[in-house]
Amino acid sequence: METPSNPKTEDYTYKQGQYSPRKRKDTTPKVNPQLAVELVFQELKRVESYTKRIEDATAKKVEVDRGSLESAENRLKSVLADFERLGNRMKNGGYVDKRVSFYSILCAVISLLFACLMCYLWVDAAKERDRYQPFYEYYQQMQEQKEGKE
User: What whole-number distance in Å separates Cα of residue 73 and Cα of residue 86?
Assistant: First the structure.
């Protein structure tokens, strides 16, 4: 009996040069069914505990929300009552607080005086600049002459 030159090809039933698909290894993992059932059961228990915690937190949140809703409602009622009182004061002509209006007018007058002072200083500085301009130009000419000699 004749032995083939290539020992790898001896168990194939095709002629040399003919295409054949590769034989693939079985890559399916071996799973223990008992272990798989236990893992699934553990995961279900974990999900149930998370669901229970979420339900408990939601129930507590609803209780807290009721209390905060009532306090918000009371605050809103007090704000509305304040607006109502303010509206009544406006109708009666007592809306302007004399102290506040006096301080507002005083602040406006002081701001106006400060603005006038700043304008005066700005104009004065411009006049000073104009007065010293010839001296500055003379100094620049002297510097240019020194540089020209060197």
Answer: 20
Cβ within 8 Å of residue 10, ≥6 positions away: 3, 4
Q: Mapping DSSP to helix (H, G, I), strand (E, B) and coil, where does residue 113 land?
A: helix
Widest CA span in the chain = 127
Model-wide pTM > 0.70 = no
Helix, strand, coil fractions of the chain, as percent rounded to 5 = 75, 0, 25
User: Position of tokens 């059961």?
Assistant: 41
Q: For the chain, give the mean pLDDT.
A: 77
- The answer for residues whose C-beta is within 8 angstroms of residue 12's C-beta and 6 or more apart is 20
Q: ∠99-105-108 over CA atoms, to 5°? A: 140
Place of tokens 């699934």: 40
The string of pLDDT tens digits covering residues 75-109 is 888 888 887 887 777 666 655 566 667 888 889 99
